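Hello K.,

You asked for the raw outputs rather than the summary table, so here they are, unedited. I folded two proteins back to back in the same session to keep the settings identical. This is the first:
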Amino acid sequence: MDPPSLSGFTGSDQPGETTPLRAEQADRPAAPLQPAGAKAPLGMDYVPSEEERRVFQECNQESFWYRSVPISVSSMALTQFLISRGTLTASPRFGSVPKVLFAGACGYFAGKLSYMKTCQEKFKRLENSRLGEALRQRAGHRPPFGFGQSELNEEQRRSEISFQSDSQNTHSAQHSYPQSKVKKNKYGDTWEE
């Protein structure tokens, strides 16, 4: 089996540059969007659109600066404080360095993981994104207005109106019952009679 060719390498992950592509991906155009009802799985050969790449890069940078760095620095500072206080013991050979580095690495990954929901929401808001569509379907969301659904159909309106009227009738029926007396003792405990 031949190793994948990197002849289509077009840059790095630095801002303003493009990401590396394998030769077979560089020659192939981006996959067309499927109709909303079609369920085409996103496999390893999926090539993200420019807008999806932009969101990936944005998520990567925001998760690093807004979550990973603060959590990592905080956990490293807390670990160093606990070592200097004597709550944690330092390594006889390496001192506090291994524990502080471990706390920093854990903070880094915790920050990346904590930003995952926010990043998924950004992809769900993309209009012409197969990845966003897959995330919306996975979460069981109906597409928001403007995504092929201009207004509620008549059956949905009727069910909403009947639900609202039922809840109003139930609410008014609850107030027709007499209120029970609430007793209170000298300690502030309350109960109904």
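The second followed immediately with the same parameters:
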Amino acid sequence: MASLNNFLLHAFVWLALATTSFSLSPKFYDQGCDGSLLLDSTSTFETEKNARGNLNSVRGFEVVDQIKAEVDRGLNQRDLVALSGGHTIGFSQCGIFRNRIYNATNIDPAFAKERRATCLRTGGNTILAPFDPTPSRFDTAYFKNLVKQRGPLTSDQALFNGGSTDNLVKTYSLNPDAFWDDFAKSIIKMGNIKPLTGKKGQIRVDCRKAN
């Protein structure tokens, strides 16, 4: 029974990832330039969202919109750390993590050197690198990397940088079952977001514009 439950949990997680396009390069954090990625371009202002280096790499904006709504109505810190584990799958572009591997101080020197070998100071913005050593496996390698200061993005490493989420990251890095269980619960909470209707709000055709 335990094996069946474990299989069903993994199947659910993969389905959730597939249906929510869980490739969250912009993450859940409004820190520095990452927050500007969420802005839509207008007729007089072009934002980073449509910049060449971000095309076909930075996705999941609709999920960020949902998470923002849920943060205002119930998602807690544990949920956000667990959901950040979605970065255990996939890749990021050189143009997204270049600043971190050349300028960050909270990064493992060997890891930075490894990334610099394929991501030069200029050019090659679309060159890909995995978020963790097992980019096609839903495991805890992402959290193990954070403990070693090998977070791929600045907003990733912020989860393990002497703050209040350090202990939870360490727990997930050592206990896959704890991560899988929390991730499943958190993504269900996110999926239970109810749209505001009637006088309380409107269901917009485009989430970034009023109807």
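The beta strands are 91-93, 128-130.

Happy to rerun anything if the numbers look odd on your end.

Regards,
P.
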